[in-house]
Amino acid sequence: MDLKEYLAIIKKQQKTFGFVIFLVVAIILIYFLFRPVSYSTSLTINITRLGQQRTYYYQYDDFYRLQADEKFAETLVEWLKSPRTVSDIYSEAGLNLQAMSSRKLSKIFRAQKLSPQLVAISYGSTNEEIAKNISSAISKKLTENTNSLNQDQKEDTWFKIIAHDPVIVRDDFNWIFVLGVALILGIFLAFWTVLIIHYLK
Known about the structure:
By secondary structure, this protein is α+β, with helices and mostly antiparallel strands. Helix content is 55%, strand content 17%. Strands 1, 2, 3, 4 and 5 form a five-stranded antiparallel beta sheet that branches.
């Protein structure tokens, strides 16, 4: 079949073609209009030290200290992938995980080491107040984990974490983009719908 034949089929079934497009666009727009509100949260963690180690040797501009900080930043990232840590954070925030699997728990937080002394944590929530509570719980649990590592240290030079105030943004969407995607999907489904109807007849 060439293009003229396809256009003839569409013209013959133009009411069906238009109805399918309208139906698909309406369903998609209704979904986005009434979907649950969600918030994206970004939390930044700085890594510092409780004290400065005294030494008379050249420090190489604290090169080895930065290396240690970088390894500890990687430790923070791995903590936030641990189902045990995630479960403790949600419990501290007063939230119920509703028996999530370990795999889902490990994906709740997206932690990334931005520099040797900086870790960025992002996550989603359905409420701005909940997002703040989770942020406070993250800071508290990571501090507790860090302090537990510090207990057996002879010198007061172990790591300390400082959490900044979280940035909480409501997840909105671009209506023009959604409408464009809905139209493309609607045309695609309408095209195959009229072809199937033509074939059955």
